[in-house]
Amino acid sequence: MKKSTFEKLHRINYLGAEMDALYHQACRRLGISDSAMIVLYTIYDNGGTCLLSHIYKQSGVSKQTINSAMRKLENDGILYLEQENGRGKRVRLTSDGTDYVEKTAARLYAAECEVFSDWAGEEIDTYIRFMEKFNDMFRIQIDKMED
């Protein structure tokens, strides 16, 4: 690998880690665990209710981590599960949960929207396009790896 490519990869990895740290810091300031935030953010992003399977897919976090966060949120009266068609389950917020989301996930969502409000639409589209391109190409490289 060329030195310049190595240096750029190092910078990209650092920025990814810094972004993870910023989200963790936001969760700490809002008084919520990272995994609970992921669950509530996904529900908020989907209009206040969603299938449990969407949380698994959209979060990229293990089912075990999501299930642990869900159990705690359910025990705290923030959300509940109901049977959906077939084997699916729908996640819904309680009234207390709706209030809690406004104090947590909605504030994080608003902060992200505020950041993007200063970007031109073309910049946002370019950012998305590059992220998608990287993910697609990286997925191919991972698929080539042997166990």
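The record above closes out task 2.4. Task 2.5 opens with a second protein, given below.
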Amino acid sequence: MERTHMNPTNKLTNVSFVIPVRIDSYERSRNLDLLIEFITSHFDSPVYIAEGDSEQKYTVKNPSGQITYHFIEDRNPVFQHTLYLNYLYQQVKTPITAGWDTDALVFPQQIIDVVKQIEIGKAVMGLPYNGSMYGTEPHHISLYEENKDIDIFKQNTPYMFPMYGSLSSGGAFIVSTEKYLQAGGDNEHFLGWGPEDMERVKRMEIVYPEYPIYRAAGSLFHLWHPRFLNSGYADETYEKTGRKEYLKICSMETGELKKYIDTWPWKAKWSTI
């Protein structure tokens, strides 16, 4: 499948947003609504959404040619985020891909900054924030819903808490589509919630040591939602499996890691893209 050439523009027509989701609360659905509205109001990027669940619980509120929604029946109570990201990469036709959680917002310029670094060949992966992820509260989201001005979150940052200190790597990432798929896409050995965000960054550092991971200036804001089964380790087995895989990746050098990635069965999908 041929991808379009680079087309530097603030409308980001050369970027695809991919969003895997399982709706486990009203707030999760609301957050996805806000995220879609945010992306489509600022950019002309295609948006691909995959909902995996026992039954469909989400409906795109304002369908358009910009948005492609897929429902996949999945009766596993544990949502495998990495599996759905890999499914969505097969839909992408642009040279740059932005992987996004349903509950993450950043200032548009932070996204543009990362895309620019990839466009000019300075990076193959970037995070659209500086490592500080702030947890919003319901009243912050209500204020944002009134005027859709993300500056509301910045103004209220002193009253929020940093969710993972100053070194977060989750929520959102932006990559060269080709380079990321060559590096294996997402690691499906992570079966549920876990350190796959850290692994993704570490793997790209090892596979492409000549390219630093770019971080944009500014914070990421996490939209509040209740936390259920898929907002933490499902059980001790999932936790041990995820931690072991992450440490395994961290221990490898470039050549060793590339050979390991070549054993991943899902990587064969990329040869047809």
